[in-house]
Amino acid sequence: MDNKIKMQAKNVDFFYGKTKALDNVNLDIYANKVTAMIGPSGCGKSTFIRLFNRMNELVPHTTLNGEIFLDDLEINSPLVDAVDIRRRVGMVFQKPNPFPKTIFENISYGLKVNGIKDKVFIEQKVEDSLKKAVIWGEVKDRLNDSALKLSGGQQQRLCIARCLAVETEVILFDEPCASLDPISTAKIEELILELKKDYSIVIVTHNMQQAARVSDYTGFFFLGELVEFGKTQDIFTAPKDKKTEAYITGRFG
Amino acid sequence: MKKEFSQNLGFFGLFLCMVITLLVLGSIIYFIAVRGFGVLSWNFLTQVPYSAMTKGGIAPVIVGTLYITLGAIIFALPLGLACAVYLCEYSPKSIVVNIIRISINNLAGVPSVVFGLFGLAVFVKFLGFGVSILSGSLTLGILALPMIISSAQEALIAVPQSIREASLSLGATKWETVKNIVLPTALPGILTGVILSIGRVAGETAPILFTAAAFYTRGYPKSIFSEVMALPYHIYALMTEGAHPDKQRAIAYGCSLVLLFLVLFISGFAIFLRQRQRSLHG
Predict the structure, then answer these.
(1) Considering only alpha carbons, which residue of chain A is nearest residue B93?
(2) In chain A, N or C: fewer CB atoms in 10 Å?
(3) Interface residue B185 vs chain A (CB under 8 A)
(4) Residue A55 to residue B166, Cβ atoms within 8 A
(5) At residue A171, does pLDDT exceed 60?
(6) Which residue in B171, B172, B280 is closest to A100 by CB distance?
(7) Given 3.40.50.300, 3.10.310.40, 3.40.50.261, 1.20.140.10, which CATH number is that of A5-248?
(8) For range B190-219, the mean pLDDT
(9) Cβ-defined contact of B170 to A163 (cutoff 8 Å)
(10) Which residues of chain A are within 8 Å of residue B89 when distances are taken between CB atoms?
(11) What burial class does residue B93 get, using C-beta atoms within 10 Å of its C-beta: 0-12 exposed, 13-18 middle, 19+ buried?
(12) Which of the pair, B114 or B273, is modelled with greater confidence?
């Protein structure tokens, strides 16, 4: 099978001050697949996916060595604008973080900052995005209510819709279900499976079952190193590394 | 039993302190109101003074207070807000910036009469604005600057980092994020701080003593270069100058009552805004 590589990390080291958070990580993200990152807290998986949309440069005193590619573009090259990368690589965060604005404005914001002014187009796009994120039915009658009035699960789907509206190519999910109940979690997981038709998806999760349910590929991180990477099925049924096996069978983590 | 007794004693002590504070506050309002209420009338609020300040009203004094207060905010708000945004959102976290921050906080502790002398030296004399609304507004504006900067900084810091990240992750630039997300979110907090500083500025005497205030002007101020009557200075002047101390004293209490209500009204508005902000974000 010929999987197209969408994003690629090559020899990535990352430092917070002098503390090494990632050590020589090499990993490919395949197009239209879901790639899960698992590992115990503090192992560097969130740090790692935040490199794919250059979010870590907002954190002072950090250093990145190595290369990260989006298609053939090295995203940290001095000629590349972080804004352009983030337009193509969207992110859904651990805690739902809607803007304190209306539901409509939450979705239209990304379009507006990207220079779209056509009202009819924006309205259509808002509706489409909310439908894709399977939240349209719950909010269509109250698009002008504050997004903060929605439940946590609804807020998270709104954040996904917000990300879909700007037509990114990759979506990074940073523990998207960490603060959600099981029913909301199931909805988000269904959504992720649906979205991989159009997007390349990376998801960080603490939930092993979740990784098994939604992902095609899984990477196991431990103490800043990528211990093992492969097809999810292989990782969960026949892990090559002892540490991976110990972690997925719940002996530590 | 012993523990319960000491706890009750502690609660009683706290309660007593609260009562004493309330008493002080209540008696201020009571004494000012009792002495000032007699002169309050529609005419007092709407007419110009005459007969050596013993008759007529204080309308130009109220108007003067509003002018210099408004002028001070027009000057200090954009400057202070821009400064706070720079310090919070743009400046690198360095020692120099920390020193700037500490200096601004110290500026808030400078006695207001020092600001008055500074205003006299710079705005009245050096820049040649004379004793005028302009000089007084600028002086009061400088007094309000540190208050506005620190309250705006607090409001900006209270904006969660997560929504900044959300905005940036959608391809917004830093400026778009500040303009569209951070500032609107912080706005109620910023406004609250601004309004509280308006209340403070409206009641200041020393900064306008040498820069703006006159004991008496005929009618209303004509331009920003006019001298002006203002409530706090008017009270001071009524109590220390003039030929009819007894009649003036009653008017001074009347003015105090008006000033008190003005400031209470402004603070009440600030509380209203804060409540609204809570209900929006709750």
Answers:
(1) A60
(2) N
(3) yes
(4) no
(5) yes
(6) B280
(7) 3.40.50.300
(8) 85
(9) yes
(10) none
(11) exposed
(12) B114
